[in-house]
Amino acid sequence: MSAVESPVSALGRATIAAASYVLSIATLIGYALRHLTKGRKLVPKVGREVLKRQILFTGVEALPFVGLIAVLTGAVVGVQAILLSGAAGRDLLGTLLVTVLVRELGPLLVAFIVIGRSGAAIAAELASMRVHRELDSLEAMGVDPFDYLVIPRMAGVIVAIIGLTMAFIATSLLSGWIILQLVGNTPTPLVDYATLIAAPLTFGDLAILLAKTVVPGLLIAAIACHEGLTAGLSSTDVPRAATRGVVRSLSAVFLWSAGVTALAYLA
Fold first, then answer.
1. Is the pLDDT assigned to residue 39 strictly greater than 60?
2. What DSSP assignment string belongs to 225-266?
3. Could you tell me if residue 26 is inside a domain?
4. Each residue of 108-133: pLDDT tens digit?
5. Interacting residues of 126 by C-beta distance below 8 A, sequence separation 6+
6. Maximum Cα interatomic distance, the chain, rounded to a whole number of Å
7. Which of 24, 62, 109, 120 is within CB 3.0–4.6 Å of 242 for a Cys-Cys bond?
8. Residue ranges making up the domain that contains 58
């Protein structure tokens, strides 16, 4: 009997742990969003320098790598779109590029890059501060660690991921146009190409893009901050916090992206 109950008990514990973790992340996000309803500025004055550094690290410094990935992605997707749309005409080409680059691949790849660069860094930094008792020092100086550490990082990641996603989409679409000139049957002026892309683009596509950009940014920052602030006090807990932050952020972004896509197609 115990052999039957053991897997059930393990599944129950895992379910409870997952629900508790989701509740913790939701509470962290909810507490951060309360800043908008209390007449307070989104980023307190004490954290504005942290906000600037976060945007610089997450957004500006990641642009070269994001640009490289965008060029390669646009080229690969462009070639495949040209081959698939050859018999169906150029209308299908625009639909394929919008679906793959704007709705699906663009936001997801940028989220992965942000997780790898910034999610891990935020979790490791906050875990290191916890190990070295720097959080206690902030409180002793009258500085709210949440205002100084969490809010600026969440705001910075959201701003950066929006900018990176827009840059990725623009660069990948431009790369696709260049490929179209090189391997297409007839040259396509840039204005005609822009019209080709804009034609299948709907308000729903923009809403999906926004949902797959803002919410993942919020999730990545919240999970990274949570893992860092709840890490153990041993030095070995710092890399563990970074690893957990990356794995759980990837899981959250995958689930959210899949859910949004499923809802979009069902609607």
1. no
2. HHHHHT--SSTTHHHHHHHHHHHHHHHHHHHHHHHHHHHHHH
3. no
4. 999 999 999 999 999 999 999 999 98
5. 149, 224, 225, 227, 228, 229, 231, 241
6. 72
7. 120
8. 45-266
